[in-house]
Amino acid sequence: MGSADILTGAKLRMLRKEPSSSRRILIVDDFADMRMAIRRMLRELGEENVDFAGNGKDAITKMQRTVFDIVLCDYNLGDGKDGHQILEEAHHMGFITPSCIFILITAETSVPNVLGAIECQPDDYIAKPFTKELLHLRLRKAMERKGSLIEIYQAVRKENYKDAISLAEEKLKNKSRYMFDIAKVLGGLYIKTKEYEAAKNFYQKILGQSNFNWAKFGLGQAHYYLGEYNAAANVFEELIRENQYFIDAYDWAAKCSLATDDAAQAQQKLAAAARLSPKTISRQLDLGELARKNGDLDTARGAFRAAIQYGTHSCFKSAREYLGLTDVLLEQGNTKKAMANLKEAREQLAEQPADLLQVITATATAHQEKGRSAEALDFLKQAEKLYQAHSGSISDDVSLGLAKVALKLDDTEFGAAVVGNLAENNHDDDVLVEKLKDLITETGHAKTLSGVLDQSIKALRALNKEGIKLAENGRLQESLELFEKASEKAPNNKAFNLNMALACILLMQKNGADAKLMYKARRCLDRVANAGKKDKRHKELSKMLETVATPKAGQGSE
Amino acid sequence: MTSDTTGGHFKAALALTIHDVKNSLALFLDRVEAVQALDENAGQKYAGFKYEIKRINNNLVRLLSLYKVDEDDFALQDDFHLVDDFFEEIAAEYAAVLHEKDIELIPDCADGLCFRFDKGLIYGVLDNAINNAARYTKTRIGLKASREEGYLVLSVQDDGDGYPECMLTQDLSAKFESGIDMAGGATGLGLYFSWIVAKLHKREGRAGYVRLSNDGELGGGCFSIHLPGENASFSDVCG
Q1: Which is more confidently placed, A358 or A449?
Q2: Is the confidence at residue B68, as pLDDT, over 80?
Q3: A186 and which of A168, A300, A365, B79 could share a cystine (Cβ 3.0–4.6 Å)?
Q4: How confident is the model at residue B183 (pLDDT cuts 50, 70, 90)?
Q5: What are the strands, taking DSSP E only, across A187-232?
Q6: Which tops the pLDDT comparison, A545 or A237?
């Protein structure tokens, strides 16, 4: 069947690997016999390079170590994660390359209808039991399909969405067998790049000709982002009517209800989705937080409990579900259980310092509010140790909470240090600076601290201005040195990091690529990204850096 | 999902049992293939084993689907599929066993025809029809996809003697509306399943249906399932 006419050059080579090729394949199944059975089939197809995993955790570890070309993953893995979760997680961690083929093996012919993000869908489903002939055929088809979309996926992976879109639009003009797959990806890209009008147009045109449910789903999203909430809600309701197991449609119907201030209905929709697919942690968290706002504490408690239960084996486990449950329990007057829950959280999150710090801070706060200063101070000590060891990876909100409890407990020295760090790293963030001032006043430390705070911010502003001026006057080297010095003191200051990266890039634009400058610029941008503060400017600078880094034709430095 | 009724318990038990039996079947299939690989004179003599394994599996799937429909807990998993790909898979699965019986399976589908249906269910329907045709055909089975006003027609044809008159004239709706009787045997069950699956495929007020006739292109019996809807197609959606 005419696959050759859409495949050229490199793609053909990719598909034409002869038997005993070096394709790396991972088989994930909880039955050892089944793993062996699948391996035998693969052997007969000439595939020798096979690895195994017996559960989700194992699978993730293996994928972290090795880049696999093909992953064959059982959907139902017993107590741990299911196949969808493994795919989602591997994707989240960046372990899946654009050319990787991920096939879910299911026991039933039908599986829950999960759409999720465009890049998080398996390439195929295959129902047990299957013959080697069928496996072979499916692998071949999946590779063909992937081959016809590979450049688009590669551009997506590099976050070159503009390129990905023009590639997809171009490909769509030649009517290939895979035009529907391409269209699906293209629609998702319009949404991702916030081209909502284009997305709406595109999906409407498709739906005018064929009633694809992904197109309907995309149209609902486009309506939503354009603020057309009623139209969006209608689309999602229709999808649910057509298929009561279309989980994503419930989530989006809930978003629409929230947007039109119907929190009760939103909760109802989320609850329905959570019943259908209880293992998705982010949904349980949303449900818990919404129910708590709605005053439905029992539902909230159930949702947070579920999030904790299903998160135990997941990379998505975080302080959020534990603290949500703690808040609900405290609100219900169940202090004892709340404290026990915090204890469990400290054990479960022991290896995630940022989350652990958040939990310890909450524990200290809870003790402090109950008037148990000795216990509160104990936990504050632990928090201080953690904070000092990991200050680079602590979010501003967590730092604020920590500063607050420290100041309330009159540990002025530590409290002031945290406030100082926050100010140093965010001197240009007016909202945060305002929050800091409020905090100092609220905890009764305005007298001692506000002068220091004001002065430090003023000094940082002056320094930043000076650096910019130097750069504007073409004194790039001096500007770079100034920002370098400044960021030694405040390593996570966004403005300093971005300006330093810019100085590096400008220097390279002037004098050509340079390994040292490249490294410095990357490190600055990474710091901003790691602090979760990526913004438009960060993106622009990343692009500029990439352009500088790409040697002109014929110069090939790699 | 609620499981606090007896029905809920049974459904869970049924689903889990089928899941487990499927695992057994997959391993059984593996053993057969392993033995086959060691047997230098294998030829096609293992095809029959594999065929029976497949039949057990397809029966289980059919049972579970019918149970869910009965319990009103059924959602059509319909999506657009490339029909030629689908046929290619079916042909690959049947190649060995039909070859053993000297029967040729001839898929016939326009390149790139894309239509909306529940692949798992329709697979069950075609599987049943092919099994049936294999019993009555002489040399060939035709697997054909064609378009009729507002419908996709998937047909399984053979070059046997055709269906007996009484089967051609029966009113399937009248026959099945009140359920199935045991008199029809396994053939009756297969036809009942096909009739249910056709009915589940609804679009804009029109439901699918099945037809038995003797006017196929191969001269024998012709089973066809007619699914309402339109081809997937679009043009000029960009810009």
Answers
A1: A358
A2: yes
A3: A168
A4: low
A5: none
A6: A237
Which CATH number among 1.20.120.1760, 3.40.50.720, 3.40.190.10, 3.30.565.10 corresponds to the domain B78-228? 3.30.565.10
Domain boundaries, chain A: 4-154, 474-549
> Do the chains contact at B236 and A205, CB–CB below 8 Å?
yes
Residues 6+ apart with CB under 8 A from A430: none
Give backbone dihedrals phi and psi of A331, rounded to 5 degrees, phi first: -65, -30
Residue pair B223/B156 in contact by the 8 Å Cβ criterion: yes
Q: Do B27 and A108 touch (CB under 8 A)?
A: no
* Lowest pLDDT segment from A5-19, A393-407, A457-471: A5-19
Q: Which of A76, A209, A243 to mutate to test the interface with B (most CBs of B within 10 A)?
A: A209
- Give the separation between CA A169 and CA A210, rounded to whole angstroms: 18
CA distance A539 to A544: 9
- pTM > 0.90: yes or no: no
Q: Which of A489, A405, A490, A419 is nearest to A448 (CA)?
A: A419
CB spacing of B85 vs A276 below 8 angstroms: no
CB A6 within 8 A of CB A178: yes
Q: How many CB pairs under 8 A join A and B?
A: 122
Give the per-residue pLDDT at B76. 83
| Whole-angstrom distance, CA of residue A130 vs CA of residue B166 | 37
What's the rounded Cα separation, in Å, for the pair B236 and B239? 8
pLDDT tens for each residue of B111-132: 889 999 999 899 999 999 999 9
3-state helix, strand, coil in chain B (%, to 5): 50, 20, 30
For domain A4-154, give the fold: Rossmann fold (3.40.50)
User: Residue A109 — very low, low, confident or very high, per pLDDT cuts 50/70/90?
Assistant: low
ipTM: 0.85
> In angstroms, rounded to a whole number, what is the distance separating the alpha carbons of residues A506 and A517?
10
Put simply, the chain B residues between 196 and 235 with a CB less than 8 A from any chain A CB are 229-235
Q: Inform me whether the pLDDT recorded for A15 exceeds 60.
A: no
A444 Rama class: left (phi>0) / alpha (psi -120 to 50) / beta: left
Check CB contact under 8 Å for B80 and A133. no
User: Which of B16, B17, B23 to mutate to test binding with chain A, by most A CBs within 10 Å of its CB?
Assistant: B23
Q: For an interface test with B, give the residue of A108, A152, A240 to mutate (most B CBs within 10 A).
A: A108
Which band of pLDDT confidence, cut at 50, 70 and 90, is reported for residue A175?
confident
Could you report the per-residue pLDDT of A137-162, keeping only the tens digit for each? 999 999 999 999 999 988 988 888 99
Compute the distance between CA of residue A470 and CA of residue B49 in angstroms, rounded to an integer.
Answer: 82
* Amino acid, single-letter form, for residue B48: G
CB atoms within 10 A of CB B4: 7
Domain residue ranges of chain B, discontinuous segments joined by +: 6-70, 78-228
Q: Do B80 and A202 touch (CB under 8 A)?
A: no
Nearest CA in chain B to A169: B238
Q: Given a cut of 50, is residue A10 above it in pLDDT?
A: no
Give the Cα separation of B148 and B130 in Å (integer): 22
Residue numbers in A near B80 (CB within 8 A): 180, 210, 212
Q: State the pairing for strand pair B140-148/B202-203.
A: unpaired
pLDDT in tens, A90-103: 888 888 888 899 99
**pLDDT beyond 80 at B236:** no
User: Is the pLDDT reported for residue A370 higher than 50?
Assistant: yes
3-state class (DSSP) for residue B140:
strand
More confident residue, A78 or A455: A455
3-state secondary structure of B118: strand
